[in-house]
Amino acid sequence: MVVGVAGYYGFKNAGDEAILEAIARELKARGHQVVALSGDPRRTQEEHGIRALHRLNPLALLQADLWLLGGGGLLQDATSSLSLLYYLSVLRAARFFRKKVVVFNQSLGPLSPWGERQVQRALKGVPLILRDQDSLAYAQRLGLPASLGADPALLLTPPPVKREEDLVLVIPRAGVGEEALKSLYVTANHLVHEGKQVLVLLLQPGYDDEVVEHFRLHRIEKTSDPRRVLYLAAQAGYVISMRLHGLILAAAAGTPFAALSYDPKVMAFAKETGAYAQELPGDPIKLSKAAMYGRFPDWEKVAALKERARQSFDLALGEAVPVRRLHGRG
């Protein structure tokens, strides 16, 4: 079967590229061909070894038998209403072409009342697999039947690399405000003062460049390559991240992590994994102590999330896994 994947791909965001990498690997391992919609089809083909077509070409939807919308945080209008309308239009166009569509391992929200109405109309009758308990509860409030999966990037396998216990990855994000960035900067300073090595890692080069001046006294690396992020996460002794996929790739690598949450999806993941988390702007003393004294997530909960992610592919592809097994985990 040819399976299409539609999401925020080809925009040099390591988190979204990690999702696509994981989906493509799992689908290929199950014997399926993969095609993706991308903002940069050539780059996507080269980086992921799959066919890619431009995301603004509606005829690209004819190239697959099944379309997975996601994963990621596509069903929200906090970023922009145009983004939400784009993804719902992809869904509607695929259905117009009589293609099977599954909303796949997404978070739901934040949505304005207008956005809620748009989502309710567009998703009526569409299989909906959500990646966290908070999104599942939100879907239920909107009257949308849904199953519970997990972020596919949890299934990525870390490379064999020697762990450096004193290395702490600090992953900021642009657009969160001066106070939050200052808090994370002070956290990094505390860690260095306590003898830790700090690497500030930017997961969306270009967009995140504005935070560089806040961390100019620290070592900084920029990458949109999820394989590089996973390598560094596996190498580190601890990860402190504002970005969701900084946490998810740390979990995939078996590296303890703490969250500084700028968005409900970040806090939702921290809650489901039992990880230490703070809301913005954060308390740098407590955050640095989480890394210093090893505030770990609940690894059994992380393992349950990975199993949910695996089972979500069974459900999306119509394989023989009862839906009830996807509920109430983690």
Q: Could you characterize the architecture of this molecule?
A:
There is one protein chain. The protein has 330 residues and is α/β, with parallel strands linked by helices. The longest helix has 18 residues, at 299-316. The protein is built from 11 helices and 14 strands.
Rg, nearest Å: 19 Å
Strand content: 15-25%
Measured between the Cα atoms of the first and last residue, the distance is 31 Å
Would you tell me the overall average pLDDT?
A: 94
N-to-C series of helices and strands: EHEHEEEHEHEHEEHEEHEHEHEHH
Largest sheet: 8 strands, parallel
Instruction: Give helix % range.
Output: 40-55%
SS element count, helices: 11
Global geometry: globular
